[in-house]
Amino acid sequence: MDAQVKPVNLEQIRKRPLFSRISLERNCLGAVLAIVMAALYFTFISVVAFSPGILAAPISPGSSISTGVVAGVSLMVFGLVLTAIYALYASMRLDKLASALRKEIP
């Protein structure tokens, strides 16, 4: 059996204060996390461009691993951490607000 899907009035949803709150929280969180990641990335790239000797230095005397490798891997891990923060916040906070919004819509 095919289930009937009710048409949704998008204007009605956009006018709800709860929708505005969800949009604001999602946009603010995304912007903050993107700015943090961009700042770290551009700092790393600036060091690569202007002070490559810093990243070429070994992490300890006699080590074959440079600080650049550690910094690059750390940057990638930090990106994953920021993604996890967004996913957790979305599932813990934004999904609950979206469920409440669905209940408000007739």
UniProtKB/TrEMBL annotation:
Pfam families: DUF485. The keyword Transmembrane helix applies. The keyword Transmembrane helix applies. Signal peptide: none annotated. Keywords: Membrane, Transmembrane, Transmembrane helix. InterPro entries: DUF485, Inner_membrane_assoc. The chain crosses the membrane at residues 28-49, 69-89. One of its GO terms (cellular component) is plasma membrane. This is DUF485 domain-containing protein. It comes from Neorhizobium galegae bv. orientalis str. HAMBI 540.
